[in-house]
Each structure stands twice: as structure tokens, then as C-alpha cells.
Amino acid sequence: MKVLYDSHIFSEQTFGGISRYFVELMNHLPAGVDPLLSLWASENDYLPTLKNAPRTIPLRHFPEHRKLYYFLNGIADKRALAKGGYDVFHPTGFSPYFIDRVKSPVVVTVHDMIYHHGLNPGKHTPEIIENMRKTTMAADRVIAISQATKESILKFYDIDESKIDVIYHGFTPVATADTPRPPYLPERYILFVGHRGGYKNFETLLSAFSIIACKDKNIQLLCTGRGFNKKELSRIADLGLSSRCQCRFIPSAEMSAVYANAECFVFPSKMEGFGMPILESFAAKCPAIISNVSCLPEIGGNGAIYFNPDDAEELAETIIRTINDRAFRLEKISLGEKELKRFSWDKTALQTADTYLKAIGDNPKSPATKH
Prior knowledge:
Mean pLDDT: 93
Order of helices and strands: EHHEHEEHEHEEHEHEHEHEHEHHH
Helix content: 25-40%
Number of helices: 13
Number of strands: 12
Strand content: 5-15%
Radius of gyration: 21 Å
Largest sheet: 6 strands, parallel
């Protein structure tokens, strides 16, 4: 069985959970399932780890390089679709360009429904929602990466529930356990990972940290990713925390040590499709304090520590207890390691291969038949 994946997410992301998902999926597909990736140009950081990756050229030094990626790779995608020779098509994004071109059953992975819930507003949101709807409804099978995501799909789309398979992500170790402590780390810190805007609810963590900082004069807040924007810097200054908060880009090879040396990891998001940082935290034996909403309890299970994402005082109390109650902390670390065993990319890939077979069985197509 040959499965064609298009270029979309590899044009869009240098780093990111969705592109990592597709690389891990392709790398772990069982024997007899061969991935085909149509891609000419990319700067994606995970592609070098992809088995039999196509040769690509990075264009980051060109003006408007993202538009150039979409243009060039769009040609590659359309040629691959027209050429045929694949049994299943699995698009990596939500562009409906393929609907009148594809020559096989289609499987779509829905990673979250955040736009539909109004948690990521913007001028392109209506277009994104419509493209997601068209793409998902055109699929023969749909993969939801959590039960919560499946429930959201059913809430917003008139779709047959039997077409949806819930398949969890696997876990990718961020580095070896013996990675030395990076010298730039504060002596003691609370860790926040990833994007901070909108539904990520960083404001609640800042408010909670302002409470903690008054009681604990030595602890800092460390964020990874892009530097603080003007609005964040202003808010941090208003709270008197300018010397207590820092943000830095951290190489993926060092992230295990960053988790491992933290007092705790905090994930205050109001909605997620899965929540990969939870598993990264478990693996590094770092207590994970996460919101009690969306899919997060589904993924965190008994290993995480939960709080109401709308209550900064509750979050502050939860962090303080986690830092100071050694027995509680060690119990949660142990439970987190147990929860981690539920997730593996081999399992993800095997279940996904079953979904491909279902798609072929549900709606077999010959090369001469258009979808």
C-alpha cells in the first residue's frame, strides 16, 4: 500500500507539532505501507530525520519565502496527484485543492478545532474554518488525535461518527536523559513552553506567577520560543516582574534538561488537540501542572496536576504545593512515567495503517475514478 502525503505543513512550519507528527508517522509505518512525500522546497527542522526524505532546498533567505514554498510545492502536489500510483492520499493541511484531483481514498487528520470554538480569532479565521470543513467532509476517513477533538468534530460537522478514528500521538524523546544542565538556566524556575497568544492563556500564568513571586524571592519564570512581544513586556513590567521572567529559544536537543531542572512545567491552555509538552514533561520527570479542560485530562491522566484555567489564585496555590510538597511531587512524577507508556509512535502508525485500510475498504477507487 502506497500513501501519498502532500507538502502543505512542510511549507508552513519550520518547527511545530503537526510537521513532527507527519515525520514520525511516516518513519514508523509498518512493513507494507510505503510513504510518498511530494515536496521540492522546505526549511522544516524535522525533515532530516525522515527516512528516504526527498531532496529539498531551503529558501529562507528569499523575500516572501513562505509564499514561494507554497507556490513551488503546490506544483509538486498537483503533479503527484495527477500521476497516480498511490492507494491513499493523506493531506498534511487543510487546503481543499485536492478534491477534484485525487485518485484514491482520502484520510484527513484533525489536530484540533480551536478556530471553530472562537479561541483563535483573526482576519483569516473564516477562510480557515471553511477550508477545514471542506477538507474534512471530503475525506473517506477522519483521524482525531484525541476523544475531545472527535467530540468537537461531531459538534460542528454533520459527519458520520463511524468515519472517525481516535488515534493518539506517540511520544518523541526530546533528548537523552543524561543531557547536562545548560549554563543559561536560572537556579530555580517555573517552565512554560511554546506559543503564548490567545487560547494558550499565558496571562493567567503571569498573574499566578506575580502571586508566587511575592512569596518566593528566588524563583523565576522561564519561557521557551519567540521573545516577549511589546504587550507582554508591558504587562510583565506592570506586575513588577521584569527581572523575574525570561524567554529564550532553546534547541530541541536541550529541552529534556530544561524540563528536568524545572520546579514544574505549567500548561495553562484553554484548549488543545492533544498536548505533546505534557508527555515531554513526564519523560523528564518534571511535574506537569495543566488545565482541567479540553483533551488535557485525557492525555495527562493520573500523572498531571490540574487547575481551573480561569483561576490564577488556584494556579498559584497549585504551583506552590507542587514545589514545596516533596511527597506529592514525587508521587506525580512516578504516575507521569506510568502514563507515558500509553503513547508510542509505533502504536500510532499501526492504528493509522488500519485507518488507511478502512478507507480503501469503505470506498475503493480505481486510478480512473475521481474522488
